[in-house]
Specification:
about 160 residues, alpha+beta, Nuclear Transport Factor 2, Chain: A, 3 helices, about 20% helix, about 45% strand
Length: about 160
């Protein structure tokens, strides 16, 4: 494993660590200033200000636990893509829980000696305890199934 690959794996690990400690400043710093996070169904957060607002809302939970596994990295110079499986647990103040399984599809860039996310897409495989918004079949957009290229490797930033 190259040093660059290890640094990108550390980026994934740091993301989970800081999100679960609700360290919003540290989480936002893992993203490039114009990065986008796509939660599906048109829910996109672009730039540090919008990302900060999204992560601040996680204080609605009394506990979270995020996990990234089986990462696949493709780095070329100062850019790359990463696909990883994910699981996220969330406990609400009333004790009810949200469980989410799926994938992160990421684009990363090396800037100022640090790897950062330029795009992060979350797609679900399954969810329990999630409440879908009106007109949506699920809370989170799901990965397509049954096609060789389902979900792609990187994130769509349009």
């Amino acid at each position: 494993m190259t040093s660059e690959e290890q640094q990108v794996l550390n980026l994934l690990s740091d993301y989970c660590w800081y999100v679960d400690r609700h360290d919003v400043d540290a989480v936002v710093a893992l993203f490039a200033p114009d990065a986008v996070f796509d939660l599906g169904f048109g829910q996109r957060y672009r730039g540090h200000a919008q990302l900060r607002g999204m992560y601040e809302r996680l204080d609605a939970y009394t506990a979270t636990s995020h996990h990234c596994t089986t990462p696949r990295l493709e780095l070329s110079g100062e850019t790359g893509t990463v696909r990883s499986a994910m699981y996220a647990f969330h406990r609400r103040p009333d004790g009810t829980q949200l469980h989410l399984w799926g994938a992160y599809l990421d684009q990363v860039v090396l800037t100022d000696g640090r790897w950062r996310f330029t795009a992060r897409t979350l797609r679900a495989s399954a969810e329990e305890g999630a409440v879908a918004e009106e007109g949506r079949p699920t809370r989170f957009e799901h990965l397509p199934r049954g096609t060789a290229g389902a979900g792609g490797h990187g994130a769509d930033t349009n």
